[in-house]
Amino acid sequence: MFAFTNGYGGKADGYDATKVTSPIQPRVGVFAEAGLARLDLILAKAAQYGIRLILPLSNWWDEMGGCQWYVDQVLGKSTPPKAKELFFTEPKVREAFADYMYAVLTRVNSLTGVAYREDPAVLAWELQVRRGRGGARARAARLRPHPFPPPPPPQNEPQMTEGYEKKLGAAPGRAMALWVREMAAFIKALDPKHLVATGEEGWRCDGGEGGAAAVGGREFAWINDGSKGACFETHVRLPEVDIATVHVYASNWGFPANGGRRREGGERGGGSARRRPPAHDPSPTPHL
Asked: What is the rounded CA–CA span in Å between residue 205 and residue 227?
């Protein structure tokens, strides 16, 4: 269940995404009571019926206002767009996201009087679905510049996720791992009572097990060659991460029959080896 809506989506924001009539964050750093009240209602109903929720806090995709929305809001829109990967590496963008997490986790539900970070209806905070601006609250978490090569000028930045780090001369998966650890630690500092998950699809950077043999002998090197910029094995080793999540979209990826099941099994083994409970996390339902 999405715990975010950023901007208004659709043509109003200039994105090919679902239109949102009452967002939680219409502009970066501005939090709308009407949008938050809807989240209050969902948490209240979940508590009433004994349901525990996994709540994603951001989105790689444009739906409901994702990485590109944050980058454009903080750094300004441009043509061509600035790379959405700056969501993970640019300090000002990371501070804006940390401010959002602070606002959500410390909110007191208007219907139940329970702070979100104290609410038993919350099972886990999920950093991302698949993967005042920069205020004192975010800086209190001691966000630091990542040791990551600076991007080239905006007009020259690559627009595709695949190979982004390699084009900058950086090790695949490093920037994402730094971001995961930083943001998971930020959540834990505010809310030590709930679990933290990454919300990833299980991409890897080792080129090893879980490759072609795991999907029926067909060649799917892109799954494990680091081109997606995320490394499942690295993330499940992080002490700040409690649940090893894998979003499996076997038909979308063109996997043969049972390929997705085999891949999920391989990632479950990786998570169990690190003592992280594995979760096959289907696409969450946006809040209404």
From this structure: 8
